[in-house]
Amino acid sequence: MENQIFLSIVIPVYNGSETISRCLDSIWSQGLDENEYEVICVNDCSTDNTMEVISRIQKGHANLRLLSNEYNKRAGGCRNYGVREAKGEYILFIDADDYFDAGMTDAVHYLKGVCLDILMIGFARETKGTPNHKLVHNCSNRDVLTGTEFLQKNMIPYGPCQYFFKRSLMVDNHIFFVEQVQCEDVDWSHRLAFSATRMQFKPFLVSHVVLNDKSQTATEHTSLTSVAAKFFAGYRMLALTETYSLHADYLRGVGTAYIKEGIKYMTAVSSPISEKVSVIKKYIPKGEELPLYMKMIRSFPHCFGLLSNILSPIVSAIIIVKRKYFGR
């Protein structure tokens, strides 16, 4: 079929007027045939002039599409919308404050020559103004594997921007993101990978993730909403043990780690005890094979809420100092 779209690049955008141009320019600079791919920006009810910036760029690129949410759905909801509307055989995500490396072109050319459900690629993490080209993940096994084998021989990263994947894999298996929450990607990544029959890692540096002081990662220890998102992500991972029983120990480990991190951040947040109790009761399940201290917190949430509020100034200060001098 002539002019068949090979790739759909989906970009969630919320108040991205200062960064979206760089992100989009990094796509156009790849030199790919614009008839073979499309770029879908999903505006998540931005309050700045994001729409105007994208609309202006759109005039010079017929393959740039702009969609808008009726209400704020966060990144997961934007990605769901973009994938549902996409026309490409493969999907690639990127965030509006990040940008592509020249390695993206190499990855696309490679993907055209193989038959894969998922191609896992690499990214580099950098602070603003300090470029970096070191891959965050560099898996040793580069064979074509099933998703299950991939987990056993490599690892499954939680970041959705590390995959080229077939749109049909997500749509036909109804593997959509939980919407309007943070940490929406951890269970999505595993569900997608476990559905793949042909998955491979290749060390292409495809994108640069730019860290800043206002990002979700940088502020995740400052509000009970962010804390609840950690608990909820852990809860969803624990729930996956019923579907993927062969990986129950691994999934339980990831789920427990997220709840553990949520407990740490809850200790750093000062908020009404009743709200903390509600989060604990909702997301730390009964009857799970959890560490004793988690079961104690689940059994005595009011005591933990009171103690955590007393300790919150100290724990918050420790986290801030640690991140400033030693990183996350």
Overall description:
The protein contains 13 helices and eight strands. With 328 residues, the chain is an alpha/beta fold. An eight-stranded mixed sheet has the order 3-2-1-4-7-6-8-5, sandwiched between helices. Helix 1 links the parallel strand 1 and strand 2. The radius of gyration is 21 Å and the shape is globular. The N and C termini lie far apart (48 Å). 42% of the residues are buried.
Quick take:
The protein has 13 helices and 8 strands.
Task: Please give a handful of descriptors for the protein shown.
328 residues, alpha/beta, 8-stranded mixed β-sheet, 13 helices, 8 strands, 45% helix, globular
Q: Sketch the topology as an H/E string, one letter per element.
A: EHEHEHEEHEHEHHEHHHHHH
Provide the spatial order of strands within the biggest beta sheet.
3-2-1-4-7-6-8-5
Question: Which class of secondary structure composition applies to the elements?
Answer: alpha/beta
Q: Describe the global form.
A: globular
Could you tell me the strand content as a percent range?
15-25%
Radius of gyration: 21 Å
Q: Kindly state the number of beta strands.
A: 8
Query: Residue ranges: pLDDT <50 for 5 or more in a row?
Result: none
Helix content: 40-55%
Summarize the main sheet. Answer: 8 strands, mixed
Mean pLDDT: 92
User: What's the tally of helices?
Assistant: 13
Distance between the termini: 48 Å
